[in-house]
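To the structural biology subgroup,

Please find below the input and predicted structure for peptidylprolyl isomerase, which we are adding to the shared reference set this quarter. The sequence is reproduced verbatim from the submission form. If anyone notices a discrepancy with their own records, reply to this email rather than editing the shared folder directly, so we keep one authoritative version.
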Amino acid sequence: MIGRDPSIAGGRPGAGKGRRAAALAGAALLGAAALLTGCQGGLPIFSRVKEVEGYPLNQAMIVAATERNCYQEAYTDQLWDAVLDEEGTTAETFLLRQVEVFLKELKLVSQMAEEQGIGLDGEEQALVAQLAEEYYSGLTEGDLAYLGVTQEDVEILYGDYALADKAVTELTGGADLEVSDSEAKVIGLQQIEVWDEATAERVWALAQEEGANFVSIAREYSVNPEIQRKLARGEGGQALEEAAFALAEGEVSGVIQSGQVYYIVKCVDDYDEEATRERKGELELLKKEQAFQEIYGEYESGHTVVFGENFWDGMDFDGGADCTTTNFFELYREYFPG
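Predicted structure (tokenized):
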């Protein structure tokens, strides 16, 4: 969905580490746009599929080149010939497919917004224009020669992005997106993980001794070197979660069997406020995405975006060595933090 940029990592366009992750979070518009729910009255049922004209190649290349360059920064250009599956799909082919999916969703969501009477107000349009000017003015000669875009091209793409983003917010306004603190609660643990019950019982006894240093015991016996961890609901096995969330700060659990693994955990923070707040935001976003699926899925089933046969043949993926732009999504989120 929109809100997701075309990244290979995670099945959508974008590189997955550090600044890349932030950039793609921006592109998470469709993920965000996956948020078009709560639409009053719903959408009409279509008896036939309507064709929608996609973006021209130079506008599409803004996204494709951004993603390509971000990946190359992280992994070098040797990445693109890597074969990802038994069908022989290369990383280059996969990335371009993901970019195309992103652009199709962006086009459909922005069009659906217009049909629902949602538009950018004067202030938002001014922001889009200012954003496009800043991005365009930051392009190098090498960027411009490779992309072949004008400032108007950039403004069109940013305008659709902002419109889809706004539609997500407005059309989900009536949906129940509330997440309780209990549902989102995250706790901090120290853990010891072993593979047999006898060892687990012996380690547990050591942890009960007066003055026992739980971390030192974990370093000696745990098969998992990650001793410190945060745990949220739904992220661990049922037995582990039930035992861990029942602990008060400073308490040590009994032996917990979860599948083939045995745990002993110590609660070091029975309410991690910052992590809980972040988790709450993630769960609310997930609810928005799930709510949007019904509306967007119905709309998508009646429309197809047409880019033309062999659309990407017009992009020399291995060329444009002087094109280094990477901040298209990052810059958007500076203007529309959402």
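Summary notes: Strands lie at 2-3, 50-53, 186-194, 228-232, 256-258, 261-269, 303-306. The mean pLDDT is 85.

Regards,
Lab coordination
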